[in-house]
Amino acid sequence: MPKKRLLRQMSPTTLLTLLSLVTPTAATYRLLDLYNSTNFFSSFTFFTSPDPTHGFVTYLSATEASARALAGYSQDGIYLGVDYTNVTNSTTGGRASVRVTSQKSYTRGLLLADITHMPTTLEAYSGCGLWPAYWTFGPDWPNSGEIDILEGVNSADTNSVTLHTSKGCTISNSGSLSGTTLVRADCTGSEGCSQQTSLDGTYGRGFNDAGGGVYAVEWTEEFIKVWFFPRDHDLTPSLTGNPPEEAPDPEEFGTPLAAFVTDTSSSANCSIESHFKEHQIVFDTTFCGDWAGEAWGDDEACSGLAEKCEDFVGEVPEAFEEAYWIVMSVSVWEKEE
Ligand SMILES: *[C@@H]1O[C@H](CO)[C@@H](O)[C@H](O)[C@H]1NC(C)=O
Ligand SMILES: *[C@@H]1O[C@H](CO)[C@@H](O)[C@H](O)[C@H]1NC(C)=O
Ligand SMILES: *[C@@H]1O[C@H](CO)[C@@H](O)[C@H](O)[C@H]1NC(C)=O
Ligand SMILES: *[C@@H]1O[C@H](CO)[C@@H](O)[C@H](O)[C@H]1NC(C)=O
């Protein structure tokens, strides 16, 4: 488009915004994509294959999920739920649920998700059987990496943040919030490098009771950092506009909940550039499987409910009435050149 015409179409505020971008105090990120209730379901695809993590789940297509009211809109947000009425077993198949993946993929940048509700069980069931996740991953797993931003299983009440890569990526969590512990430094394979957070309200019932909040991920050539801003945090309003009025500035975010960095003094060495690329964004809710199922027997709150995770999940549908996501928006920002 010719420059003159472009300028003529701009409102004074657009021009002001443009000018402010070239000043030294300019924000370093600009909006690339915003997903909200106006475009979410045309931008995310429903995954309908068997769960690669062997969950006791049946992922529905968009048509099926919509017909059974497991995907749609609620409270101005995007609702992604599970079946909480039908009894099921190994013959009839895993509990119906949804897993959605962004069609677009991204390398580096800033990713914000405003989430008001995440999957939990009814309180009496302590989260047992559930394995919800908000995450990103690249092609040819694990060669392009995976970032698990918000994830946990069973009676967990704080978030676990994890990276998965091919061989040769070891990280340090120096710079993470105190109280966040590095469970494993080697990011290789399905175990990955995990950080267990200890902050209340980052996961499950505590997250929902406080109205959720914003998860922010900054992914650069040097590091991957994850922040959580609870609903009542001072910065939250500036991150939740639809779209936010000003570009967010991670320099103002404070200490991350989980920082994944290279720190040669601790022999942590990871080329983020070669291990992470072209990530799609995913929300899902699965049950049991490689993590929640494996951990069932060691979880005191859960193992008392049934001998096996699948028995509980299949036989007690009403436990999962609150096992839904409400996502207000997801925005992707790229660094100014
Ligand atoms: C429960 O099962 C019935 C019968 O198969 C089916 O029609 C219905 O859609 C199911 N409900 C959900 C929420 O999946
Ligand atoms: C699963 O449930 C179906 C329908 O209720 C029943 O016919 C079948 O025998 C059950 N299978 C098992 C393994 O319990
Ligand atoms: C969704 O985002 C668009 C801008 O891309 C905005 O115009 C619209 O108001 C937003 N919708 C809601 C429900 O916030
Ligand atoms: C870190 O890993 C890269 C690539 O694997 C390697 O070239 C480099 O020498 C390593 N650096 C240190 C300090 O170990």
TrEMBL record:
Checking CDD domains in the record gives:
GH16_fungal_Lam16A_glucanase (cd02181)
- Which GO terms are recorded in the biological process aspect for this UniProt protein? glucan catabolic process
* Transmembrane stretches, start-end: none
Q: Name one GO molecular function term.
A: hydrolase activity, hydrolyzing O-glycosyl compounds
Record key words, sorted: Signal
Q: Which residues form the GH16 domain?
A: 42-300
Could you name the domain of life of the organism this protein comes from? Eukaryota
- Would you indicate the residue range of the signal peptide? 1-27
User: Per the record's keyword annotation, is DNA-binding included, yes or no?
Assistant: no
- What protein is this chain from? Endo-1,3(4)-beta-glucanase-like protein
Organism, by scientific name, is: Chaetomium thermophilum (strain DSM 1495 / CBS 144.50 / IMI 039719)
